[in-house]
């Protein structure tokens, strides 16, 4: 089943129903997601789709069409055929008995080395294979430079799990066997200098059995299956559109599909300029921070589940709309998170809001001091509130507490105004199924673990405590006391 979100529809200018129909008619979606993004720390975030399918199924045609439509981006094609092993004298003497469609016919180690090099941001020399001599050309190579998109194409490109793990999207081109045979005959006689009888003999002896044994089983790994290959223009258009969307995202959104940055506009950039300016007055800071928080909350609410609902309008007509999730609560991480509560209450009338206080206790890291949560929080979706995600330590501990209370990880939406990459890594690696919604991702943390460029101490600026003179000891400011049973109260 293919699920089309309103976000997908808004990006295309089409309704969700129309977009869903196009996907259903054009391609088959397999698995829980049509994008698998596996990128380790420090690796480039260029897209690496893989295209597999039977011999002469139209894989290269599909790749060429994708490259043509992505003309405004740097796209390169790495063909598995370039990595055939050169035949030994013994194998050459019995070339009619050699199976070129077997996984052992390819030098997978060199293919992996080339892919790793490209992902490190370095150009590579791709070998050239002579299909008439069945040897690699020792003096001819194809230089492939770093690109935004690296397409991996080949009949067995999904066979090795190490290669599969490097792909962001896995596409299987599905074409009828008789069409593939006709194309194979034409290609091998015209481009590779073989006669028809030789092609047919090889097809029956090696190609067809290898397809059944090695190629077809890899279809189960595909995220997208394209019927009819290059003739399926709608499917290719949708794939290109998806790649364009991913290329336009922040690098961390390409790595973590559960990170959402609200669309940047001049209004949002203007408000960020004001709240980041150290000369902005407290009154203006609060006003524009509240506006931004409201936008983040609204965006976060859009990720909650909903059901279809019909109502009768004052004109007596039937309107088909949606009913939002009612089992919802907010949880603010004290104290900065409390600044986001008013916006949440304005959007969700009567919503229950819990609180978590986490206090830095010397060199011992983070220590949970206080929590007050709805008793039935395990049955609710939770909007976790904290305007700044820096190291992620407090967030991780707060999320761990929610999970311990029985809240499913997928029911947590973490809302903040700005996020540091270090914090996003810390949270998403630990909790890959929650969602993070933010208005901007900043550059990094400095040596003092403060977000840069950042906006300073958000809580102090919002509540005006930076103007109160000397710092007030934490225990005094919050009146923390330890109860006889060993817990804390605030």
Automatic annotation (TrEMBL):
GO BP: any one term: UMP salvage
Catalytic activity: uridine + ATP = UMP + ADP + H(+); cytidine + ATP = CMP + ADP + H(+)
Pfam families: PRK (PF00485), UPRTase (PF14681)
Entry's EC annotation: 2.7.1.48
A GO MF label: glycosyltransferase activity
Pathway linked to the protein: Pyrimidine metabolism; UMP biosynthesis via salvage pathway; UMP from uridine: step 1/1; Pyrimidine metabolism; CTP biosynthesis via salvage pathway; CTP from cytidine: step 1/3
Residue ranges occupied by any Phosphoribosyltransferase domain in the UniProt entry: 264-465
Keyword Membrane set for record: no
Domain Phosphoribulokinase/uridine kinase: 50-234
Domain of life: Eukaryota
Protein name: Uridine kinase
Organism: Ceratopteris richardii
